[in-house]
Amino acid sequence: MRKKFIIGNWKMYGSKASVKALLTTLKSSSVPPSVNVNRIVCPPYVFLAETQTLLEGSQIAWAAQNMAAEREGAYTGEISAAMLREFGCRYVLLGHSERRTYYGETDDLIAKKFKLATESGLTPILCIGETLKQRQSEQTEAVLQRQLDKAMALGESVFQQGILAYEPVWAIGTGVSASAEQAQKVHQFLRQHIALHYSDLAQKLPILYGGSVKPDNAKALFQMPDIDGGLIGGASLHAHDFLQIYGDCVSITN
Ligand code: 13P
Fold first, then answer.
1. Which residues bind substrate per the record (predicted)?
2. Domain count, the chain
3. Residue 31 pLDDT > 90, yes or no?
4. Which residue segment(s) compose the domain that 19 sits in?
5. Contact of 54 with 88, CB cutoff 8 Å
6. What are 71-110's pLDDT values in tens digits?
7. How close is the Cα of 213 to the center of ligand 1, in Å?
8. 193 a catalytic residue
């Protein structure tokens, strides 16, 4: 059985006070934890120290939303993989569509970060997804293939250290999730595409769905055979919603 993941991407939201309140509630929740479903939160960088203090020793892991493509140096405003490790991060999101769209991140740059993350002891969570225009012009598979191929070209031993997240851009923050069937169809395609290169890995790689996952649609999505959990934006800022989504994943998995 593949490991499942429920990951909260907080994006650029929160304050010292809200982070403390949210993490305290998540930690003290009565939702029974499952060894098969990993819970991870991705706060903004400046809250990582506080997150580490609050979550150390708990069942919840923490991760960064991005990292630099270089190990260290004169890169004003950047945060290195080694710094993230020092603050207890074990995972890092890479290639989120907001990074691609607003900060011009390319597949080459993201692949460079992917490699550096694995070399630094971080598990990269590679985000890929098509825009509405690309979907409407039937380019979804070609776009996803292109976004995947640079990371896959790093070789099986590198690529297998990651996690994949399919996040259709049209579903992010819009309240319009892909239907469970739409998402499953894409996840199945992704496994088939990966299998062309790495057949064992295609079955083992966790592939998460992201884009308007909420308590009312999570269960249907997670019931799909190729969906291994979710990358949650807006709903992860509300402890009750995040816990319910986690509980739904646990109930299907156990
Ligand atoms: P929403 O859940 O707010 O649509 O965001 C999804 C996302 O971008 C997670 O990385």
1. 9-11, 173, 212, 233-234
2. 1
3. no
4. 4-252
5. no
6. 999 999 999 999 999 999 999 999 999 999 999 999 999 9
7. 7
8. no
